[in-house]
Amino acid sequence: MILADGVILGAEEQPCLLDELEDRINHTREKERLDTETVIAAIDQLGRRLAAGEFDGLIEAVGLGDKMEDLRSFTRLLSRDYLQRKVDVELGAHWDVPTVTEAAFGLNGTHTRAVPLGTLFHVAAGNMDFLPAYTVVEGLLTGNVNLLKLPQADGGATIWTLQKLIDIEPRLRHFLYVFDTPSSDVATLRRLAAMADGIVVWGGEEAVRAACSLAPPGVKLIEWGHRLSFAYLSGDWRAQTHQLTALANHIVRTEQLLCSSCQTIYLNTRDMTDIELFCEGFLPLLQAAREQHPMEDIGAAAAITLKNMASEVEAMMTGSAAEQPGKYRGRQCELTACEDSELTVSELFGRVWVKRLPEAQLLPVLRRQKGCLQTAGLLCDERDRERLTDLLIRCGVNRVTTPGGMSDVMMGESHDGEYALRRYIRMVNIEIPAAENHRTAPSLNS
Questions:
Q1: Rounded to an integer, what distance in angstroms lies between the CA atom of residue 238 and that of residue 52?
Q2: Is 80 exceeded by the pLDDT of residue 258?
Q3: Is the pLDDT of residue 335 over 50?
Q4: Who's near 347: CB < 8 A, 6+ residues apart?
Q5: Can you tell me whether residue 92 is helix, strand or coil?
Q6: CB-based contacts of 236: which residues, under 8 Å, 6+ apart?
Q7: How far apart are CA 260 and CA 251, in angstroms?
């Protein structure tokens, strides 16, 4: 399925579209311009109509009813207040107004202007519903033409959302092209990459390597790669039942599939007894959260059940205890008390590592994952918060939150330590004509 010029096309029309797409893009970039206000007004209207339930019937009719809750959450990012604040923080309130640099030091003055990068080819990941639509929103806010490759598990949500956006503001149709092209179709992906000024890739190391292989020389690679997040507990965690309950809910609600999801719970201790006591106390909270948010991925649930059964059969055959040492199992959730301190991806779907990490070892341990750190959910005594927050930042963490808010969106926040919109523009300089008293700029060869 393809979305081009606001119209849904079948896969059989892809070859013809690709043959003429470069000409279409060139015509749009030569003749049309998107201003930020047009984009914000259209997105805000879409968000308000979604939040009001205006499209609920259509959402159910196209088979997206199971994504209704995620869609409601997504609408918070579509409000005018949020989008305008995002633009103001990341680019400045008047980012698209040229500025003047007066002549000085014997050099010419210049007009400086921020302009779109040009054409963005987004390779979206499927670990978060409506993320593919949102990466296009960022491209539109900066006035770019956007080519989007959908993830395999999108299920039509992105095309439906973007088509509704085009219905609200038809001027967007020439700036949006969506392709439901499999990653195995390398020839098509290369053609799309060749039309781009920047490739925006979301995903793990494999996705980034694939995007690098697609990028022609001179095309900017904008990587939003896989990141690791964790909770760090210091002090008397027993007195923080409310925050621990929030952490348990975060773990099962995200199923640990997001870059901001908790993969490991670290305790500021050297004693394995503390780890065991924590697991015994936290498992009931994790179980209660799981019962409130049952696992929706039937395949994952089946795989976990089979793995547990295999472990029990193996234990029976070997004569060892059925319950593995360090395992604290609930129903569709599990804690593993680990001897090591390494930060690694968990087994996901409510299964979490619990490890020791004394404060003195924070930096040497976490720095082994430099470039991959994202969020730390910090639970500690208030007198220690500022010191531990500063230490986590020094380790390379980009977000410090409460344990239950690790995946919450914060107003004005950066993305993995960078402002996304700044990566989707370029700065151009235009020389101001010389005045009568103009002096020639010094030559590099003089």
A1: 41
A2: yes
A3: yes
A4: 334, 336
A5: coil
A6: 381
A7: 10
Which range, of 51-55, 121-125, 170-174, averages the lowest pLDDT? 51-55
Q: Which amino acid is at 251?
A: I
How far is 118 from 350, CA to CA, in rounded Å? 42
Both tokens assigned to 165 = 């956006």
Pairing of strands 99-101, 110-116: antiparallel
With beta carbons less than 8 A apart as the criterion, state whether 196 and 120 touch. yes
Alpha-carbon torsion 31, 123, 221, 21, what sign?
Answer: negative
**Max Cα–Cα distance, the chain, nearest Å:** 96
| pLDDT over 90 at 210, yes or no | no
Q: Cα 336 vs. chain centroid, distance in angstroms?
A: 27
Tell me the C-alpha distance between 140 and 143, whole Å. 5
Q: Which sign, positive or negative, has the C-alpha torsion 350, 367, 225, 34?
A: positive
Stretch 120-141: mean pLDDT, rounded? 86
What is the pTM assigned to this prediction? 0.81
- Based on its alpha-carbon atoms, the radius of gyration of the chain, rounded to whole angstroms, reads 25
Question: Which residue, chain included where needed, has tokens 């399925």?
Answer: 1
Domains of the chain, first to last: 2-226+416-431 (3.40.605.10), 228-405 (3.40.309.10)
- Provide the b/e sequence for 342-364 (b: ≥16 CB within 10 Å): ebeebebbbbbbbbbbeeeebee
SS3 of 101-155: the string is ECCECCECCEEEEEEECCEEEEECCCCCCCHHHHHHHHHHHCCCEEEEECCCCCC
